[in-house]
Amino acid sequence: MPAPAPIPPGPPAVPAPAPADTAGRARARPSLQSMLIRPLILPLLLMLGVGLAVLVGVNRGAQARALVTDSQTRLILISSLSGDVASMENGERGYVLTGDQDFLAPYAEGRLRFSAHTYALHDLSPPEQQARLAQVQALVTRWFQTAAEPEIHARRTSLTAAASLVDTGAGKAILDEARRALDDMQVEENTNLSAATASSQDTLNRVRLVTVGGLLLGVLLLLVTAWQVARTVTAMLNHLTEGARQIAAGRYDLRLPDSDVRELAELGRQVDVMAAAVQRREHELRVSNEKLGRSNRELEQFAYVASHDLQEPLRTIASFTELLARRYHGQLDERADQYIAFTTSATTRMKNLIQDLLSYSRVRQGGRSPTTLDMQDLVGSVVDDLAAQVAAVGGRVVLEPLPTVQGNAELLRQVFLNLIGNALKFRAEDRAPVVQVSAARQGRGWVFSVQDNGIGIEPQYHERIFGVFQRLHGQDEYDGSGIGLAVARSAVEQHGGAVWVESRPGQGSTFRFSVPDATAGPVGAVPTAASTPDPVPAAARDAATPAKEPA
After folding, report:
1. How far apart are CA 21 and CA 24, in angstroms?
2. What's the predicted TM-score (pTM) here?
3. Among 53, 145, 252, 497, which residue's beta carbon has the most beta carbons within 10 A?
4. Mind listing the pLDDT tens digit for each residue in 148-186?
């Protein structure tokens, strides 16, 4: 056996980024949170200013509305005072002219209302209006004292005396002066009302302008800020993503660019550390795989050579044993004939074992080129090869329509030879064997089925039967070496598929295996997880497939 080649030295360990000034640089860099929040300060301050301006405007508008309401109330009270003066004057003159006591009722009610309205207006009026109100109140009081009461008192005694007092015109002059003062107050209140209304409308317009303008400007600033932040963060992440993609592609010596953001810089450093660790692990794994590959090749070569070389002495033993059996049969004692028979039988079994081992070794040799195979023709040729065995057991093989696949004819032929041959071998004693071969499209591949009506298999042996030299029956029951299903599994796995069994004792067995759609590379190459579909049904994996590798 040749000595193993020396393992090439691995690449020098890539040191992790030096952390000498990491803390200082981390403090100098802004955090991702501050980088995202700082650009939003100006728009938020603007929105806050707009809110304050709206609050002030609403307050001023409320004040203006209060002024308008007070002015309207004062106008109503001034108008009421004018009505009270007219009621008192009309009641007093009616009584003087007619002497009817009923005219004194409006006069008395007018005096009461005038007093109440005067107090109410005084509480609501500004100082200048209070001065005019005091003047009106004084004039009306003087009218009571100098005109109204004397005229009423005179009318109770004589119409002529009352008429002479009225004719002087003193009372009318006093009330006319009071009316002029009320008119001045009304003009002043109308002016105040107009000013308050204009101020309220102006405040409302300003609030609208500030609100709409501030909101539009704030939204614009937010959009611009969000765009800038998104562009900055996207650029940083794109740099990290591109670096990580190149590292994932195998450039483990590449180091990610340093970032101005604390968290992204830390992420980049961790990715660099991970890349260095992966680089070391990859080298160790490559060395281990090379050693394992050499070991496997040497073992396969050893098995092939050993099996091939063992056949020559085995043929010699078989030939001389056969000569002994023919020449000395019956000339020795019965025990000698029995020994010779045992030797012949053992030699035959040994020959079969060596041939099966050679077949298994040949099947495990990868690198076969896939071709387009018509499985109907391939399985038909297998059935033709087994025609003698089918006829010997009185069986029948039914072929349903089979597809065309990409694969290796030699390997797939071995699969069907072993599966159909086992179906004919492990037949039930009470019925003729019937084997049905079918295929179904599933996912990204085909699943072939070989179903029989034979003796079936216990569930606990569904995994064991696919091992090398694994038998469930003795040589006196069924012949064979127990390597056929191991050959079938190896051939299927070299196509990137899996093989499993569904069976119960006495109910026959259904062996299924999957052949994925064609992938790049020769048959026997190790498939990758990204390129190889999983055509095994989930139910079959859970129910019948072994835990370590599919049966």
Report:
1. 5
2. 0.43
3. 497
4. 888 888 888 888 877 777 778 788 888 888 888 888 888
